[in-house]
Amino acid sequence: MKLELVSKGEKNVQNEIISKLRDLINAKNLETGDKLPSERMLSEKFEVSRSNIREALQLLEFYDLLKSKPQSGTFIADIGPIALNGMIDDILRLQDPDFRSLVETRIMFELKAVELASERRTLEQLEQIENALLAYKEKVINGQNAVQEDLLFHLAIAQASGNSTMNKFMLMITPNIITNFEKYHVCDKNQAFIGIQEHQDIFEAIKNQNSAKARENMKKHFGALYQYCYHSS
């Protein structure tokens, strides 16, 4: 699972490409199932790199507006032109959420995710959660920054919830969370060490399929983060 951080400049380029893609789709009256020009052709037409084109296409695919088929290309998803244009407009209007909003949203989703993970997790998913826990523990003990390992632990729980929408949403907000953690130095060394035991407690509750205990442990884990958000200035 790879975490990508997008800078403000890259986001502006991405939005410009998405806007041009929308205009192209409308100009050519492309409909459900129609194929978009290749990455190379779009790159030449919009005068940007192919990697920029690829990232914009992947974002629209993330929102289920496009469908990529290996060896075939990228196609308009099963969505009407009015809905397609409306959703693209919404994507272009999206602004980076403030840190407090990210925390509130994350807590709300993760409390439910950990309950579902306790009920639905497979043995393979349990192993993935444990591996993420061990990776976090190793980084902290060695005095290294473990923000990404911490988030991978929580992403593994979201995946184990069996709720694809919840998992997708967590993937979407994760880069912004990492950026803000590093910007505001949220997790000091002491809190990171406390996090080892808190992660362990969450894991044990999921392992024992005790959803109530898992939620309780997750809520406790978020206590310091919640306090930081509302009592720091």
Mind explaining what this structure looks like?
It is a single chain. The protein is mainly alpha-helical. It has two domains: 8-93, Arc Repressor Mutant, subunit A; 99-231, Up-down Bundle (Four Helix Bundle (Hemerythrin (Met), subunit A)). 73% of the residues lie in helices and 3% in strands. It has eleven helices and two strands, in the order H-H-H-E-E-H-H-H-H-H-H-H-H. Strands 1-2 form a two-stranded antiparallel sheet. Helix 2 (39-46) packs across helix 3. It is elongated.
Secondary-structure map with pairings?
Layout: H1 8-27, H2 39-46, H3 50-62, E1 66-69, E2 73-76, H4 81-93, H5 99-120, H6 123-141, H7 147-160, H8 164-184, H9 189-207, H10 211-221, H11 223-231
Antiparallel strand pairs: 1-2
Keywords:
disordered N terminus, 2 domains, two-stranded antiparallel ribbon, 11 helices, Arc Repressor Mutant, subunit A, 233 residues, mainly alpha
Structural class: mainly alpha
Using only C-alpha atoms, the radius of gyration works out to 20 Å
Here the CATH topology of the largest domain equals Four Helix Bundle (Hemerythrin (Met), subunit A)
As a percent range, the share of helical residues equals over 70%
Q: Whole-number average pLDDT? A: 85
Q: Which architecture of the largest domain would the CATH scheme give at its second level?
A: Up-down Bundle
CATH top level class name of the largest domain: Mainly Alpha
Measured distance between first and last alpha carbons: 34 Å
Number of self-contained structural domains? 2
The largest β sheet comes out as: 2 strands, antiparallel
Count of DSSP-assigned helices = 11
According to DSSP, the number of beta strands is 2
Going by CATH, what is the homologous superfamily of the largest domain?
Answer: GntR ligand-binding domain-like
Strand order of the largest sheet: 1-2
Q: What percent of residues are in strands?
A: under 5%
Rough outline? elongated
SSE run: HHHEEHHHHHHHH
Please mark out the parts with pLDDT under 50 across 5 or more consecutive residues, or reply none: 1-5
